[in-house]
Design a protein that fits this description.
single chain, alpha+beta, 4-stranded mixed sheet, 2 helices, elongated
Length: about 200
């Protein structure tokens, strides 16, 4: 499951002025987000330092992570800046003058669209899972690649695709841990038989 890109949401705002500039935090560190998935709590935290080795060479700014909508800005042409600071990953984007960007900028100004999201892949060993009776916790410590940052019109985890992705990751990690426990139990049985 670590190869699939995941998405998370944060606030964004328009900057008043002659140019269409938007800014916000695509990632905030050490802010646990807890959500209910099938009656079970799932808490995830992007830890400080998770971006230290992240590939952010060519990151586009999209609308709703949609590949079918024109890219609004991009690091490659310097219309999108990604700034790592003590809070997380701040973005500043200067939108080019197109009709779709003007419409989107106006929607952000009016507060119709006020969230950001990011699509990412976790590095091998870049997260830890803790399973408790009623809650599963995931700490992300190493993001391998940042695929995009997006302005979005839905709040954090309110879409089925995000719920489904989180649940799929959770179930996969539970299966992996169950398999490791079974192997350890089998190993202990073999050791015990050898002592008899």
């Amino acid at each position: 499951m670590k190869g699939k890109a995941e998405r998370r949401l944060i606030d964004i705002r328009a900057i008043e002025g002659d140019k269409m500039i938007i800014e916000g935090y695509a990632i905030t560190y050490d802010k646990p987000a807890t959500h209910e998935i099938g009656g079970r709590k799932f808490t995830e935290t992007i830890k400080r330092g998770a971006l230290d080795r992240t590939d952010m060479k060519d990151v586009p700014l999209r609308y709703n992570h949609n590949d079918n909508v024109m890219i609004m800005a991009r690091t490659r042409n310097k219309s999108l800046q990604l700034i790592k600071d003590e809070n997380g990953l701040k973005i500043i984007a200067e939108l080019i003058d197109t009709q779709s960007n003007r419409d989107l900028y106006k929607a952000i100004q009016e507060g119709l669209i006020d969230k950001m999201s990011f699509a990412f892949t976790v590095a091998d060993g870049g997260d830890t899972w803790t399973f408790e009776k009623d809650e599963t916790k995931r700490d992300v410590t190493n993001i391998a690649k940042l695929w995009d940052v997006s302005v979005v019109d839905t709040p954090f985890y309110d879409t089925t695709s995000v719920y489904a992705r989180s649940l799929e990751l959770l179930e996969s990690e539970e299966r992996r841990l169950d398999s490791l426990r079974e192997k350890e139990i089998l190993k202990q049985k073999i050791i015990m038989k050898g002592k008899v």
